Fold:
Amino acid sequence: MKRNISYKFRNKNFPKFKIGAIIISIIVILGVITLFPHLFRNTYIVTIANKRIIRHDNIDTYLIYTQMEDGNIKVFQDTNNLLEFKTRSEDMYWGMIINKKYEIRAYGLNIPLLSFYQNIVEVKGVQIEKK
Structure:
C-alpha cells in the first residue's frame, strides 16, 4: 500500500522542515571542507633550505623551505592542528636544522597562489650514507 506523502508539503510545519534541511546541509558542507585536506597525505625526503615565521593576529605560522631529492623547491607549513593531535609545532620548527636531511610526513594541498601549503605532521632525521 502506497502512502501519499504530498500532504507534508501542505503542512504548516514545512517551513521548519526546509530550514532544518538547510542547517543540516550547511553543517555537512562545513564538515567536508574541514576534513578534505586530511585526505591528501604524503611522505617526502627533503633537505631543509630555509625557515621563516609569519605572525598574523598573534598566531604564528612556521614556513619551511625545502629542497626535494630531485632538486625542486617545496614549501611546507608547520602549524598546530587539533584534528591531528599536533600541539607542539614550535618545538618541531626549532628542532629542524638548515642543511640537514629529513623524512617529512605531511597532509593537505599545496596551492602557493592562495598561500596553502602542506602541513607537517611528523619529522624524522635521515642519515646520509657515505660511499
